[in-house]
Write a structure and sequence with these properties.
Layout lengths: L1 E3 L5 E13 L3 E4 L2 E7 L5 H11 L5 E12 L5 E14 L4 E5 L3 E6 L12 E15 L4 E5 L5 E3 L4 E14 L3 H4 L8 E13 L12
Antiparallel strand pairs: 1-2, 2-5, 2-7, 3-5, 4-5, 6-9, 6-12, 7-9, 8-9, 10-13, 11-13, 12-13
Protein name: AIM24 family protein
Organism: Streptomyces salinarius
Pfam families: AIM24
């Protein structure tokens, strides 16, 4: 059972079951818990190889036991997402925890240059259960429909779910449009039907290499 204590701490109540969580994100626990480091953050060798290629530094641990375990990471805001057999795509730096029964892996998202440290692959979480994702400031959930496609600054993108097509547009950016310069050389466009999570603060991104 996932529940928030405030907006920046995740409490997970366990009765012999397990969760996957970002390595080092446990801040306290009661009862009896066992911790095991998982390789690559994905399922099997593919998850390990793709992350090594893209240089992502995400490591995941499995926590199993009886009691309550609390997770947090750098005072980030935490957002709970319920999955009903669907798939959630999330930047690896924004992943905090997921039910152990959910399948985690990586998905190729196209040639887009790189958000710093995130490369060409996105973490995927799929199945039935709960996941917790982080954002720098309270996340906003935006609806995408056939009539209203959505364009997102790559530094503000956190995650998305639903029947969405993702593409990358180069050219004029939000920053260069207003003469500030040094901004992203591309934008992320979503079309279809689904939800996109964005944060009110931008991670550092690398301009130009689309």
């Amino acid at each position: 059972m996932f529940r928030l204590q405030g907006s920046k701490v995740l409490a997970v109540d366990m009765t012999g079951d397990a969760v996957k969580a970002k390595n080092g994100s446990m801040v306290a626990y009661d009862g009896e818990m066992a911790f095991k480091k998982l390789s690559g953050g994905g399922e099997g060798i593919r998850g390990m190889v793709t992350r090594r290629i893209t240089g992502e530094q995400m490591t995941v641990m499995e926590v199993k036991g009886h009691g309550t375990c609390w997770f947090a990471d750098r005072a980030s805001e935490i957002n709970l997402v319920g999955l009903q057999g669907d798939k959630l795509y999330v930047e690896s730096s924004n992943f905090l925890a997921a039910d152990a029964g959910l399948r985690t892996g990586t998905s190729f998202t196209g040639t887009r240059g790189a958000s710093q440290g995130n490369g060409l692959f996105t973490t995927t979480i799929e199945g039935h259960g709960q996941a917790a994702i982080m954002s720098d400031g309270p996340a906003v959930v935006l609806r995408v429909s056939a009539q209203y496609p959505l364009t997102v600054d790559p530094g503000a993108y956190v995650a998305h779910q639903g029947n969405l097509r993702q593409s990358f547009q180069s050219g004029v950016t939000f920053r260069t449009l207003f003469g500030e310069g040094g901004g992203e050389a591309f934008q992320i466009r979503f079309e279809g039907d689904g939800l996109v999570y964005v944060q009110p603060s931008e991670r550092n991104t690398i301009a130009g290499d689309v």
